[in-house]
Specification:
By secondary structure, the protein is α+β, with helices and mostly antiparallel strands. The chain has 2 domains: 39-192, Orthogonal Bundle (Helix Hairpins); 215-327, endopeptidase fold (from Nostoc punctiforme) (Alpha-Beta Complex). It is 61% helix and 9% strand. The chain has a 6-stranded antiparallel β-sheet. The model is unreliable at 1-7, 19-30 and 106-110 (pLDDT under 50).
């Protein structure tokens, strides 16, 4: 019954070939997913990096604060050591007075004072009053020292607890940052192959583009000398740099100390306009100030872009939306 509906003989073979050809044709007609171009991957890297770099700069700030707290902790410990010795010495003196009073006995000591020639009574009472006041003063000093020691110890304990919390927080942030950096580097390898390094020319012309014989000129020259060094987050030299670490190192060569955080360098230094720019001035990009570089003249900056890249020259307007400019004192 069913055979009457089935193509027979050559018709079956012809039907089968037709179906297979149609399937192949349809398969060939289905568009394949195109691999992203290097330019598209670079755009992805830039987008992700602009999200990551604020985290890195926050790490720089917290890490700097952590180092400052540790220095304060060491200073406080150094202050507490001689204080403890003074407390111990005072307690030892009070202990000796107590032992002497115990050995003499309160009644016997009083008998020694008021006994003998009545003409000496006034002098002996005066002496007794002096000794009592001296003893009270010594005890008061010990109490004061104890209170100071206790207060300083509580402060030290608070600092230590805060340091431990910050340290744990930093460890977690660092691990998360490293995972994101590894992911970014994987994208770079996809785009540029295993060599994966900097793209384009690192040096686009004379650097500094303008010469000035002042602190800013020295800072600009130092930045130019670091072109080609690799980007490493939270690094400030001598073999690698992040963006605020680069500007920090550049101005250190001119004898000026900057703090390792973009927003600190923005807040600590004098605002200047674009028309006032001179080599050495700091250039900031993006509204949250998460990226910065150093001006070297001719509308050109030296900056450390992101992981997998290197310290390089670039146009002021090519890096990102400019947030403003600052000049270190």
């Amino acid at each position: 019954m069913y055979a009457s509906h089935r193509p027979a003989g050559g018709r079956l073979r012809a039907w089968t070939i037709t179906v297979i050809a149609a399937v192949i044709t349809l398969g060939l007609a289905t568009p394949a997913h195109a691999q992203p171009s290097p330019q598209q991957i670079e755009q992805q890297i830039t987008k992700q990096w602009n999200q990551l770099e604020p985290v890195i700069e926050k790490y720089n700030r917290v890490h700097t604060e952590l180092q400052t707290n540790r220095a304060q902790q060491q200073k406080l410990s150094a202050q507490l050591q001689p204080l403890q010795k003074r407390v111990d010495a005072a307690l030892s003196g009070v202990g000796e007075l107590a032992n002497r009073a115990y050995r003499q006995g309160g009644y016997s000591a009083m008998s020694m004072v008021i006994g003998g020639n009545p003409t000496d009574l006034t002098d002996k009472l005066t002496y007794l009053d002096f000794m009592a006041r001296s003893q009270r003063a010594q005890v008061a000093d010990v109490i004061t020292l104890r209170d100071k020691y206790a207060a300083d110890k509580r402060a030290l304990d608070t600092v230590t607890t805060d340091l431990a919390t910050r340290n744990a927080d930093l460890a977690g942030k660092k691990q998360a940052i490293q995972k994101k950096i590894d992911a970014l580097q994987t994208l770079r390898i996809k785009a540029y192959g295993p060599a994966g390094g900097a793209t384009g020319a690192l040096r686009t012309g004379p650097c500094p583009a303008e010469y000035t014989n002042d602190a800013g000129g020295k800072a600009a020259a130092k930045a130019c000398s670091l072109i080609g060094k690799p980007y490493v987050f939270a690094a400030a030299g001598p073999t690698s740099y992040d963006c605020s670490g680069l500007t920090l190192a550049a101005w250190a060569a001119a004898g000026v100390s900057l703090r390792h955080y973009t927003q600190w360098q923005w807040a600590d230094n004098k605002p200047v306009s674009r028309a006032e720019l001179k080599p050495g001035d700091l250039v900031f990009w993006f509204s949250d100030l998460h990226h910065m570089g150093i001006y070297v003249g001719n509308n050109t900056v030296v900056h450390a872009p992101h992981t997998g890249d290197f310290v390089r020259m670039g146009g002021i307007d090519d890096v990102g939306p400019v947030a403003g400019y600052r000049r270190p004192a």
